Amino acid sequence: MRKIISFMHISLDGFVAGQNGELNWVKIDEEIFDHVGKRISEGDTALYGRVTYQMMENYWPTAGDKPTATKHDIEHSKWYSKVHKVVLSKTMRDAGPIAIGVTNTNIISDNLSDRINEIKQSRNGGSKEILLFGSPTATHSLIQLNLIDGYWLFVNPIILGRGIPLFVDIKDKIKLKLLTTRQFTCGVTELNYTVDRR
Prior knowledge:
By secondary structure, the chain is an alpha/beta fold. The protein is built from five helices and ten strands, in the order E-E-H-E-H-H-E-E-H-E-H-E-E-E-E. The protein has one domain (about 5-150, about 165-175): Dihydrofolate Reductase, subunit A (3-Layer(aba) Sandwich). Helix content is about 30%, strand content about 25%. Strands 5-4-3-6-1-7-10-9 form an eight-stranded mixed β-sheet, with helices on both faces. A two-stranded antiparallel ribbon has the order 2-8.
């Protein structure tokens, strides 16, 4: 069975966005782009909440075609066009990929646990990760249903004091096992955890 890994930038005090969803505090550079790009390129399924998905759709389909496109823009735009996208949304409806005008995209609006488990058991015999990009609301829903298998966190050297937290209303303890860490030149620290279900 494939694993869902939550990929987030996070402040030292546990926030993944400012109060209004702002991300202008996130530090990111070519070193991080290259590191993240290697892992992302191995995945064939991306999971998004509606807001994050709409932001991605507004940028990535054409990002690699612009005259000012960076190496990262070109590579990620190609990956984004090929990857199977799954959107968690109560307001969008899935009538098949063509209905929303985008290929390789499906929407889950109900039966979240069953639909996610189907995805975890499908495609490529369980050899690939399903990366959940940002999407705090979707992440909260999946945490409540115990569907997240790992956390790939990029801890930014900042204390926000307020904002949208990564962890809210946790009913039971979630035990984690630290797999890897990495310190980047810009001061960001990568923490790569798996959920310990023993």
